[in-house]
Structure formats: structure tokens, C-alpha cells
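C-alpha cells for chain A. Residues wanted.
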């Protein structure tokens, strides 16, 4: 029996530095890029555990964009993980991490399952906005605050100068995003249709979303070909179904689709 390693991830990156001719409607070619995007910080929080934060600060501004050792540390964390939760993680965080690992010729981490809270919210509901700030404000008890000491782009500009005060604000901001994402995930969890089945990891009958053994039989789940026992988790509220078909083979043979 294995309890899966589940955690929430958020990365912060440096901006691209490029030569541009105008301010509006720019299409920037690769030959215009002076400095590429790099990972400048990350926060990893085991589900229910304490955040782990790292950044590239403290070595002088010429080293801020050097993310090699940051990626080595993050790769080890991901290598031990089974399920990673991230807001916009499929389209951004994990793809950026993968690109930077390849740029440093580092080996891939072991396969993981990704739960993207942005996608999960978008798939199941029609909220006015699917950004973390809006979802956190309306669905959790921890509304997301902006980095007021260094507003907007100023935070990243000052971190690139290796300003220790800016790095302190970045740490607070990065950890806050991870905590907010974890809380959002817990709120969305019973609604996620394709949530990784924790029962497979733990090799027992339990709620596929939260792992609770307090699942009660509640009627039948009917598909196009058969019926199954339906279960309801008394902890997170997730509805699930058994694997065994209740409809007998002789009946299934005469059913129409």
C-alpha cells in the first residue's frame, strides 16, 4: 500500500529581455531576444505540509538568471512526486520547467499526474474569471493579495537587481500563491471528474479523490451499457462508482445504443 506524494507547485520566472522598435502590437523574433526567460523562484507545498521555497537571489545580479541549481533541486522534488497541483500548471509551470531542464541538459523527472486548478474550474463551472485571484477570493477563505511593496513589474525588476527586500516580497508572494492554490484544489476536488484515483495508489476501496474510507453506497450509476454501484464520500463529497457491472450479460446483449 502506497500513499501517493501530492503537492502544490508554483514557479516565478524572469521576463524576456529583448530589443523592440515600438511599444504596441509587437511580434518579437528570436533574434531580438537578449536574455531568455528563466526560473527565478519556486515554492512546493506537500498537501497539508509546510511550503518549501527556493530562489536564485543572494549571489549578485549577474547570477539571478542562472537557474541551474534551482532546477536541479526542483527536479528532485518532482522525481519523488506522484501528483502535482498547479494553477495553469499544464500550459505554463510544468512546460517552463521542462524547457529549462532540457536547456541545462538535465534528465527528466519520473512521470507525474498534473491537476490544473484553472482547467478544473473551467471544465466544471462558468465563473466570470478563472484566475487564481478571483477564484481564491470567491471560493476560499484566503483571498490573494498583490505584492504591494513592489507593485506590478517592479517586483521582478528589483529581483533582477538582486534587491534583498524584493526577494523577501517574492518569497511571500510565491508562498501565498501555493497556499491559495492548495485551498482552491481542496474546494474543487470533489468536482474534478478525472481526478487521479487514489484507490489505485493505496490499493484499497476508498474515495478516489481524497482517499477517505468513509464512502457510502448511494444507488446506482447508469451508463449506456450497464449500471454500477454508486458511492458518496462522507468527507469531501465526491461521487464515484464501482468497477463491477450490475447488468447481467444476457441483458447487455439485447440492449440497444
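Reply:
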Amino acid at each position: 500500500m502506497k500513499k501517493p506524494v501530492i503537492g502544490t507547485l508554483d514557479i516565478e520566472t524572469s521576463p524576456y529581455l529583448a530589443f523592440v522598435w515600438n511599444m504596441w502590437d509587437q511580434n518579437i523574433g528570436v533574434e531580438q531576444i537578449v536574455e531568455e526567460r528563466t526560473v527565478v523562484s519556486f515554492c512546493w507545498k506537500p498537501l497539508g505540509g509546510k511550503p518549501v521555497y527556493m530562489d536564485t537571489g543572494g549571489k549578485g545580479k549577474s547570477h539571478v538568471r542562472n537557474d541551474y541549481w534551482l532546477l536541479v533541486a526542483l527536479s528532485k522534488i518532482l522525481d519523488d512526486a506522484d501528483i502535482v497541483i498547479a494553477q495553469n500548471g499544464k500550459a505554463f509551470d510544468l512546460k517552463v520547467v521542462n524547457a529549462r531542464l532540457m536547456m541545462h541538459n538535465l534528465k527528466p523527472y519520473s512521470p507525474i499526474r498534473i491537476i490544473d486548478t484553472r482547467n478544473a474550474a473551467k471544465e466544471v463551472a462558468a465563473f466570470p474569471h478563472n484566475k487564481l485571484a478571483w477564484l481564491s477570493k470567491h471560493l476560499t477563505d484566503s483571498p490573494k493579495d498583490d505584492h504591494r511593496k513592489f507593485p506590478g513589474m517592479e517586483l521582478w525588476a528589483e529581483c533582477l537587481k538582486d534587491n534583498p527586500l524584493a526577494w523577501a516580497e517574492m518569497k511571500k508572494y510565491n508562498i501565498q500563491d501555493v497556499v491559495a492554490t492548495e485551498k482552491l484544489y481542496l474546494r474543487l476536488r470533489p468536482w474534478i471528474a478525472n481526478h487521479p484515483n487514489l484507490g489505485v495508489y493505496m490499493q484499497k476501496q476508498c474515495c478516489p479523490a481524497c482517499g477517505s474510507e468513509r464512502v457510502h453506497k448511494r444507488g446506482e450509476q447508469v451508463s449506456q451499457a450497464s449500471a454500477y454501484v454508486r458511492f458518496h464520500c462522507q468527507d469531501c463529497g465526491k461521487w464515484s462508482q464501482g468497477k463491477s457491472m450490475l447488468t447481467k450479460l444476457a441483458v447487455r446483449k439485447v440492449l440497444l445504443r
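The longest helix spans residues 164-188. The longest strand covers residues 6-13.
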